[in-house]
Amino acid sequence: MTTTAYVPRPAEAASADVGRTAGRRRRDDTRPGLAFLAPFMILYLLFVIGPALYGLVMSFFDTSLVKSGLGKFAGFSNYVEAFKSSDFWSSMWHTVWFTILTTPPLVILSFVFAVLAERATRGKWFFRLAFFSPYILPSATMALIWIWLYTPGLGLASAVVQKFGITAPQWLGDPHWAMWSIAAATVWWTLGFNFVLYLAGLQEVPRELYESSALDGASPWQQMRRITIPLLNRTTTLVIVLQIIASLKVFDQMYIMTSGGPNFSTRPALEYIYDIGFTDYRVGYGAAASTVYFILLLIVSAAWFIQTRRAERRA
Amino acid sequence: MTDQPVPQAPILSRRGFLGGALALGLGAGALSACSSPVGAGLAGSTLNPGTVQYWNLFGGGDGVRMQAMESGFEKTHPNIGLSSVTLAWGNPYYTKLSLATLGGKPPDVAVSHLTRMKTLQAAGLLDEMNPADLARHGMTADKFNKRAWSTALVNGKIYAIPLDTHPFVCFYNTDVCKKAGLLDSSGKLKPLNGEQAFMDALSKAKKVTGQYGAAVAVINETSTPWRLFQSLYSQLQGAPVVSDHGTKITIDDAKALKVLTFLSQLDKTKLMPGSLDYQGAIATFANGRAGFYFQGEWEITTFQTAKTPFSMTLFPNVYGGNNHYAVQADSHTLVLPKDPGRTRAQLDDALTFIRSLLNQSATWAAGGHIPAWLPYRNSKAYAKLTPQSNYAAAANFAVYDANAWYSGSGSDFEIIAGGTIGAVMSGISSPAAGLSQMKQKLSVLAKTQPPT
Lengths: 315, 452
Hints:
The structure holds 2 protein chains of 2 kinds. Chain A is an all-alpha fold.
């Protein structure tokens, strides 16, 4: 009976070959790599980079949605109009105010709930499901649910508040309350994502740290402050950055729940650009407004990037 | 020495599986391409030839009535399919209609306010209607309300078929007005001609209700204050607020101030307060806490459902005198969005649908609108329809919003003008301050290069 067996090459011959074959492999991998990237790059150029550049060009013309071509050359007048427009700046402020309202709760509450969900011994799956499932709803569904909750007189929100003897405000109809109501709905909706990130981060914390600190006489609060939170720093940074960027891009909730009202008091920057560009047909001016918005977002992201790089170099 | 296990070649490799799935998917796609929306979109073909695609913005009571009329069409024309889509009222509807038309996938027939249809036409988004085609379906100019029809013309060309005129009207509580001695022998409201008679009537009503004379929506509401202002201002024969396609502000300051001062006075004396929002004003009138309610006629169903003892009549002729009665109104029209690929068969189907809606004007008029279709408007059936027929004359004195790219029902113009007027009515601004703020905000729009 003969058997065929795999016989490895002698070591020297192998190492002599490795250099040659490894080099060949590296050069060979570039073309297949680019081929894999190609579908994505083509679509990205066609649908993201291309239109962004076209938008930049459009912003220097009085381009109209309903007229073909670029229209009359306008130089910087679109940008000047954006800077002078009080509607533009108030919509920017609404976006910033929304970010301020939603980011702290979405970071802190998701951490709290993640810690609590981790502690559950029975039915962990239920708590994870309960906190995460709102996140999978599409924005229109979430908006519809909360519109019903906020219905004046008939909605659950008014009913609950009235049980405590307080007159319910017009949740979405009062300019003072509308943004808070939308922020509350958003916190309920997107908490799940940060919750999952924190859950993952909590799994990474070694159990021995808790045991040894308990032996050294640490209280649960000290454990939280000295072990859990510091070890979750990377997760927290990620959560904060993602949350701020996502909040600055808000549109759906306002468009569906209040249409930017009442009296434009909740209109975010993106809805202002939409109203100007698509409803008023003024895409040239809309492109200028969105370029200004893009640059401001870029500045915020760059500032954050530099700050984290500096922090990492220090650490 | 043990044998290394020789791996069996799998019956179906991963590549084989992916290749097979792709082939199957393409094949299935090709087969169903013509009927599925995705396939039709890729192939650029019509989704449902032989069906009329119809878009409207009617919700609430109007929506229910329109659905009844659509069912009526389906019963009388079973061979033509109907696909109807209702979108949110106002800017969302017009934005979607414009973008669908620009993208080459417009509906066959769409509803449009007369004032907004002008902007759509200026943007090149509407197909012109040929009088010969219309005549084939019995729709000739003499069969429509003259004012609505002629206002809808653009340089003598037809772009819209008026369905109705919906003016600003006066609702009055018959019980309250009877107690206040404001009804004549037949139980109808005595005409309130002139400022003094108007304020008199409101004071008498206020004494009876113990709260307000009249209710009107002001808070968080811009259309109503604008319509109220426009009615009174037009009775004074004030020049249009904006002219020349919205590039010039031509409001008559003196006359505008007269109206704003009058409205501010009504709020100060609590005859007609500026502190109610849309639903609050409805509730106040429905519960008899005000004797009068000023709004568009479409709220008739609300009060019929609430079983309020009420009737309706023309908006009071406060400043019009004998010859210059006027009242703010708009009309719903039916338009044909621009579709270069529209065949004659599709055009006929669309016009058949439009004619069917006109034939069912009775259903539509029951919702309060004044029918533009004269065969029904002049009929005995409509005359018997009270209180709707009480204010039918308003269609002949209708003042439409200015023709400008930023104007029309639910437009930026209404929001700006209505916002500043509302501020005066609720006492936040003085009449002079409100007027100057309106002019200043409108001038920003007036100076902007029109996109159409």
